[in-house]
Amino acid sequence: xxxxxxxxxxxxxxxxxxxxxxxxxxxxxxxxxxxxxxxxxxxxxxxxxxxxxxxxxxxxxxxxxxxxxxxxxxxxxxxxxxxxxxxxxxxxxxxxxxxxxxxxxxxxxxxx
Amino acid sequence: xxxxxxxxxxxxxxxxxxxxxxxxxxxxxxxxxxxxxxxxxxxxxxxxxxxxxxxxxxxxxxxxxxxxxxxxxxxxxxxxxxxxxxxxxxxxxxxxxxxxxxxxxxxxxxxxxx
Lengths: 112, 114
Known about the structure:
Largest sheet of chain A: 6 strands, mixed
Distance between the termini of chain B: 36 Å
Number of strands of chain A: 11
Low-confidence stretches of chain B: none
Number of strands of chain B: 11
Shape of chain A: globular
Helix content of chain B: under 10%
Largest sheet of chain B: 7 strands, mixed
Largest interface: A-B, 22 and 26 residues
Order of helices and strands of chain A: EEEEEEEEEEE
Oligomer: heterodimer
Low-confidence stretches of chain A: none
Number of helices of chain A: 0
Shape of chain B: globular
């Protein structure tokens, strides 16, 4: 079973600082890894998906990397803004499994 | 607009009164699933479906039923709800198209069982 861990659980940064969010997984036979954003009481919005054959994906200010050998993925958010305040979740999928295993999330606060 | 919809969005009910939460997607996705989200426990999968008439249990299936009679719909049924099923529920869909299985989530249904 894939175990996914996100540390830290919470993070507070001043506006303009770059954000680095970490995600660790136990099974290197990962099919893909997906990063989501969740606002309080709301649904999950997909940010980036990285296939096992890829090392990184980029969308605007967001960049996600995947290192299967070390069991880690990192989400970088450049020049953070107060609107980036949310909980960020990562979820990994194994090659032979339809299930996504979620981390507990990192709650980000960007101070104006 | 490509989306996953859930109804109702909010529901307060009493113990034992059967209820159904509907989920529908307009992306022609083969794969659909239900999750519940609880503080401190994160998101856990309840049931999933690989296609019409094909369903299987996730991590926490007890107390829930599902059916997949049409590709676009995947309702979640609580035959006899109990207070420990108070939670935030999400439906999701995805497709193996392009090999991604990228998951799209509905807006959530907040259920309170008293």
